[in-house]
Amino acid sequence: MPGRQSRRSVLAAITALPLTGALSACSGNDSAASASPSSRRTGKTTITFWSALRGSQEVVDEFNKTHDHIQVDYQQVPSGTQGGYLKLSNAARAGNAPDVATIEYPQLPGFAIDGVTRDITELISDKLRRKLLPQALGLTTFEGHAYSVPLDVEPMVMHYRKDLFDKFGFDVPVTWDEFADLARKVRRTGGGRRITLFPTDGMTQFAAWSCQAGAQWFDTSHGAWNVSMADAPTRKVAAYWQRLIDGGLVYTNASSARIADAQIGTGLVLTRLSGAWDAGAQMNAHPEQKGQWRIAPLPQWTPDKPSLGTHGGSTFAVTKDCKQPEAAMEFIEWQVSHPDALKARLSSGASSQYPTVSDLIPVGSKAFDEAYYGGQDIYRLFEDEAHKIRDGWVWGPRMTATGYVMQDAFARAGAGSGTLLTAARAAQDGTMPDLKALGLKTTTRST
Q1: pLDDT by residue, tens only, the chain of 447 residues
Q2: CA spacing 20 to 30 A to 135: which of 37, 42, 51, 145?
Q3: Signal sequence: where (predicted)?
Q4: Could you tell me if 283 and 405 lie in one domain?
Q5: In this structure, are residues 340 and 333 in contact, taking their beta carbons and an 8 Å threshold?
Q6: In the listed set 352, 374, 403, which residue is the last one of a domain according to the structure?
Q7: CATH number for the domain including 406?
Q8: Residue-wise burial string across 424-433, b where 16 or more C-beta atoms lie within 10 A, e elsewhere
Q9: Claim to verify: residue 193 and residue 146 sit in the same structural domain
Q10: Single pTM value for the model
Q11: For residue 321, what are the domain limits?
Q12: Are residues 137 and 168 in the same domain?
């Protein structure tokens, strides 16, 4: 087995993993040798799975019902920012991480660098690779090495109140200029209505808008982590939203706060700009608004050259502590590509994930209750939008910490102290010490 490797030496500074034998543990012989005595006697392998995703219990139940040789022991954990990621990190330090863990795209590089997830490049079958949306697989692959399998990828779309659009005679905006014009019209209707909420806890939303405009906050060219969180496209996005904030045309508060739920529930917010997953969350949170919402493509800067960023999405990683990586990968592949897995997840009634396997789109369309969105086939819309996702986006190694810095500055900007641009610059400044503490070679750009 290879020994612990330098953070600088692995994958040319992209992940620099301290793997402690993870690569050799991926071989079939090692897996069989490390299986528990009870597993060898019974011929049944049990793997552990941690996730906060809606519908996971239903998925595991379906898998266990249809698989005799592998059984999954599922544990629901808090969402990542609510303690789930800390729980995973602590378990990995103690050497008892679950076999399979759910990790969102922004946090994956950090868990890879910390050696929590293992390199599964050789475990992903060619058949599965061919099925996965390339942009999604790219978000889990660093310098040619894969560290998780994408479950869903979430193109940002515009959820809008069709009943209120009809009432006031509003057209659905196609460009961001039209969106700003509509924001002024909505404000003039009175009653405290606003076109949307700028979420002060929304680092990932801001990242999606910046990605759409062409930003590249992180890249790993020339053997270093190059950081540019205030590049020209980001400045363009920051200036756009700053004008809406300064004009009192949008709400500025946390999307997770009770006030945000009230703004949606009372019809004060006419659009929600978020990932495809949010359709199910909206349906679950506000069943009384059934039939009032529709979904449209996100406004574009240049309609004839459409581009999108992603907002949300999860992946499944095999951890360094997994003793049966082949069994873990069999469960993962079934989760992300089998129709019964998606049916089971959608049966929870609280999910509208957009799968990274295009073969599952008809399954999603059929299983999702279209009545909430007035009979609209939202999965077909998601399919069209997913192909607009810009390729090449890279998340940084410490996005949770980076996000906290940015969101603190967003909250101050929303209260009139500072701007969105200063928030982006503060996030970059706050990110650099963390990257240097990891021993990574870094560069910064301010243009």
Answers
A1: 333 333 333 334 343 433 333 333 333 333 333 344 444 445 799 999 999 998 899 999 999 999 999 999 999 999 877 889 999 999 999 999 999 999 999 999 999 999 999 999 999 999 999 999 999 999 999 889 999 999 999 999 999 999 999 999 999 999 999 999 999 999 999 999 999 999 999 999 999 999 999 999 999 888 889 999 999 999 999 999 999 999 999 999 999 999 999 999 999 999 999 999 999 889 989 999 999 999 999 999 999 999 999 999 999 999 999 999 999 999 999 999 999 999 998 887 666 889 999 899 998 888 888 899 999 999 999 999 999 999 999 999 999 999 999 999 999 998 989 999 999 999 999 999 999 999 999 998 765
A2: 51
A3: 1-27
A4: yes
A5: no
A6: 352
A7: 3.40.190.10
A8: bbbbbebbee
A9: no
A10: 0.89
A11: 11-150+314-352
A12: no
The pair of structure tokens assigned to 217 is 């906050």
Same domain, residue pair 269 and 233: yes
Last residue of one domain, picked from the residues 324, 352, 380: 352
Residue type, 263: Q
| Closest residue by Cα to residue 393 from 122, 9, 109 | 109
Q: Which two tokens stand for residue 154?
A: 């979430």
Closest C-alpha among 327, 15, 345 to residue 151: 345
Q: What is the phi/psi pair of residue 260, to 5°?
A: -65, -40
Q: Is residue 132 part of a domain?
A: yes
